[in-house]
Amino acid sequence: MENQPAKTPDQIPVTVFKGVGPRVAERLRKLRIESVQDVLFHLPFRYQDRTRIVPIGSLRPGQSVTIKGEVQLSEIKYGRRRSLLARISDGTGSITLRFFYFNASQQAGLARGRHIMCFGEVRRGPATLEMIHPEYHLLESAEIEQMQDSLTPIYPATEGVHQLTLRSVTEQALAYHNQIKEWLPEEVLAQFSMPSLGDALQLVHRPPPDTPMDVLEAGEHEAQQRLAFEELLAHHLSLRQLRAEVQIKPAAVMTLAAGKNGTLQDKLLQNLSFTLTGAQQRVIDEISHDLRRPHPMQRLLQGDVGSGKTLVAACAVLQAVEAGWQAAIMAPTELLAEQHYRNFCQWLAPMGLSPAWLSGKLKGRQRTEMLERIHSGDAGVVVGTHALFQQDVSFNKLGLVVIDEQHRFGVHQRMALLEKGRYKDLYPHQLIMTATPIPRTLAMTFFADLDSSSIDELPPGRIPVTTVVMPDSRRQEVVQRVHEACREKRQVYWVCTLIEESEVLQCQAAEDAAQLLSEALPQIRVALLHGRMKPAEKEATMLAFKDADIDLLVATTVVEVGVDVPNASLMIIENAERLGLSQLHQLRGRVGRGSTASSCVLLYHAPLSASARERLAAMRETSDGFEIARRDLALRGPGEVLGARQTGMQELHIADLQRDQALMPMVEKAADKLLRDYPERITPLVRRWLGDVTHYADV
Ligand code: ADP
Ligand code: MG
Prior knowledge:
This protein is α/β, with parallel strands linked by helices. It is globular, with a radius of gyration of 30 Å. Magnesium ion binds at residues 309-310, 404-405, 562.
């Protein structure tokens, strides 16, 4: 026992700390804290300055400060809400403390003449400056209490784990800060003149009183940047490593006997009324090349709304089928999946192929039949929703999976799908298509395991959509505009947006709008489309719209992705201020698909918030998907853009993809160096930041 090597901080459990028994340890586990090292990497997200007392006379609204003074007056006010008010003065000025929740003893404690110290945010009140529900404690005398000797860190907490616990635990863990292994090579640290890991951790957990608060709050202190750099590096490396692992797995080689493209693909292209754009052809070649390699393709296909991704997917699918493999196309919504199904049925019929269809809503005998066709291999092409990868679905010989419009499909899902789609020891090829262009920083942090292709050209003859923004007080004019468009035999979408986070209410809004519009426009054929209609009804409505038997389609945002009716050239979006930029861009992409000039009217309900104003302005100013994505990222931040929560994608602790973009080139260089010269450091570095990433979630 004596001679065992000393344990390193990643091997020592948190239970060594005072105050951490099994109960607290269990709760800390919820914050993914198990070892001493984990504690040190549980980083504050804010700070408070309790190192000094600020004179009340110098306070400004917005500051979070510690003050000290004497209670001059305390009283209960019965206004709109009952509240306890206490006026505090320190000789330089006075401020009101306001409590909405309080008990009798609190009230008694805040008696006139008592000395009090409190911490809180200063706000402008009706009469004086105020603090609402400050933290405070009563003092025995006017004596100064001992102040904190560092800025106070505020940690992400969870139920049953309070700031005080976290402060105590980090305090104890900091004794180990110099034993944490430095995985960054000396030359990298020197090259970018970064502080050592130990120093950075010490500073971030307990910043000295003179550390500039604004720099810290912005996350721009060199210690924070040092950690952000390491975190981004860990994410990037984990994907690079994963990519390397996938790159050596075996996959089906899909070579074609006849010609470069294969006979099926030639046939498909011959039957089209148009020719491929140069960009489509280039991307099809890239994919085709991947499919001939004996390792799984892992390719991200980016192309703006309307750039013709579906056809590219169809070419890939035909290469798989011709080489004797099954291909699956998965879409995120029922509506989009149905539309792909129809497209594929139409495209593939001349080749004698009949795709199978599978969605969660398919039940009973039809489902059994489809499962059988998929299992026996009778269906070479299968189209559907997520239901494609449920337990009871077994493919005969799956070789290619196409995932459409799924920027929410994270690395976990990609890996799970790879496993699930296995045929013997061969892994399927994956093509992931997205209309949301992914800025480079995001791509390097979350998609570095993928190759990327981009369709950077729209089919010829597309006329940019004109976008106008109008208050809904001018609705009558808009209805008139719809009328005129329909008279000119153009078709129109009228989109009703989410009123609350409730599909029922959204459908209700669409029903009401459809009712009102049919009354206002009796000569016009109006139909309704929403998520709560039966699949057959939805399908019939979509078909009727496609066949121009409907002039005006009133819909919820179910039409957001993928819907393709080229003759529709006017879109009205109600309450557009409620939608995010990329959602608006997707919706608007439903028009401007034909050869007539299209327009989009964004109706809003005044007053507009500042960010809504920016979104609508962005929509009016640009129709470039990359520009929209850039602005979206700036407005919403990467977590929202990627839908991190939905995919269980790891959130960043300290890095911020927007703020830290400038670090990315350095991250890439450092990653190259580690991969080349220090491969053994990669696993512990990744584990430190991402935890155990070998277990992937289900598809
Ligand atoms: P997205 O990239 O948004 O998924 P789609 O695949 O739905 O775009 O294609 C949009 C429309 O453009 C469809 O009607 C499709 O048939 C048509 N299209 C695709 N490629 C071309 C092309 N090269 N020339 C003309 N029209 C095309
Ligand atoms: Mg599409």
